[in-house]
Amino acid sequence: MISESKSWTRIVKHGKSKHFDLRKMFSKDPQRGKNFSLKIADLNFDYSKSLIDDKTIKDFLSLAKEIQLDKQISDLLSGELVNNTEKRSVGHIWLRSKDFRPSKIEGVSEIDRVQSNFLNFASDVRSGKIKGHSGKNFSDVVNIGIGGSDLGPAMLYKALLHKHDGKVNCHFVSNIDELEISQVLKNLNPESTLFVVTSKTFTTAETLKNANFAKRWLVNSQGQDAVRSHFVAISTSANACKDFGVDSDRVFPFWDWVGGRFSVFSSVGISLALGYGSDSFKDLQKGASEIDSYLKAKDFSQNAAFIHAIINIWNLNVLKLNSLAVIPYTSSLSRFPAYLQQLWMESNGKSVTKSGKKSKLKTSPVIFGEPGTNSQHSFFQMLHQGNQVIPVDFVLVKDELGQDKEFQDSLFANALAQAAVLAFGKNKAELKSVKTENELISHKIMPGNRPSNIITLPNLEEKSLGQLIGFYESSVIFQGLLLHINSFDQWGVELGKKTASNILKSMSDATKPDYDSSTNQQILNYKKKN
């Protein structure tokens, strides 16, 4: 366990022995902004406002060497069963980076063929070659899925809306809530609506409930024969898809070595190709692949994703900062914090190590976020003056294509201002120097010394967005390997599913429910409304 390693002992000792003061650190090193910044592909990562120094990084590099991080990365890329609890390889990187593909893994040789099939299908839908049952072109796509089958595609679809050509509009349905799917369908024409149902086993309760609702909606208007023309499945279960009514040539698989939260560059991302075209999808992949190439580098000190990873482990376990606010300064990335919640917290929200022992270290912060400047008018008060210090990742875009320069400048200026005020604040002497009323001084003090990072994208093009995803994926994976946890399973999700299934039966069962007293009472109260 790394908590017992010599390197970790040095890391903790360093954290306890020094007070990290951003004002003093910037004063001592006038070039800190430059010296604590890295480029990774086209992204710029400025970590100068994090509460770390050169020794922090040096000690984490020693830890990486001590635990043979380079070998662990090599094992992951070569197809070793790094997902040890499910006895699976981890291969989402192979989808976009051919150089990493190991020939020994089942399914790897099929990647290009499967991708070609679903991208050709998407192109044929967009061109009108593939039509609906009545002969109309498809104008709308409804993506039905949950978790990784929804969050990644929905986030990227919205991020690219500034490039939408109006050919095919995509809509996303995830929750097991009739109001959600009804609101989507009420404005659509069944004759020109295509459904994409994503479920690896085609047994996901929420997804199938919504898929069957959509099927009834379509059949009521177009008849049973229309199903085969209006449904596509992303699944490994061809038989279940056939039973539902999906033709085999419209079932696009992905593999058990692609986890849901890492699956957007597989056939799960077909909605992006339908909405924006196959070239758009390939450019997203290319961007992520450019980040993957940094995994080959042996010098972790120059890998921005590694530095981001160690900062978060340091914040969580040494500085005892339990949350992370992710603030994209563009409404186009409004769904990015939600996407990141699954990527990060489902991956690393674990309490035992890979060997099954209780982890002595915290493994994941609580992730939350909202676009700036909206968030400045909601929870930033707490970030600046609350008695809990919450680190921030600011995600900035240098050039939002088509955006008026005045708007763009304002967004960027606001983000930089927030990062600076969090770091340096305003003290009592400074308030007195501007003749602040004495009774208000304590209320206006901004303590500062609140850490943040700035990740800057050059633009909102597909390649940049792919790089952003690849950056955070790499950071999450580095953290998991350093903490010796399995970032690729999610056992905490399973028990709730089974319990919900049992409680659902109790909703219509005449017998008295047999759970805890609180659950029993809630079931009985719910039944009364019926």
Structural description of this entry:
The chain has 530 residues and is α/β, with parallel strands linked by helices. It has 3 domains: 2-66 and 297-488, Glucose-6-phosphate isomerase like protein, domain 1 (Rossmann fold, 3-Layer(aba) Sandwich), CATH 3.40.50.10490; 108-283, Rossmann fold (3-Layer(aba) Sandwich), CATH 3.40.50.10490; 498-528, no CATH class. Helix content is 46%, strand content 10%. The protein has helices at 6-17, 22-28, 32-35, 54-66, 69-78, 111-127, 151-159, 178-185, 205-222, 227-230, 238-244, 270-276, 278-292, 304-317, 336-348, 380-385, 405-424, 428-433, 438-444, 462-483, 494-508, 517-528, and strands at 37-40, 43-46, 140-144, 169-173, 193-198, 231-234, 251-252, 323-328, 366-368, 392-399, 452-459. Strands 1-2-11-10-8-9 form a 6-stranded mixed sheet, with helices on both faces. It has a 5-stranded parallel sheet with strand order 4-3-5-6-7, sandwiched between helices. The longest helix is centred in the C-terminal third of the chain and has 22 residues, at 462-483. It is globular and about 75 Å long.
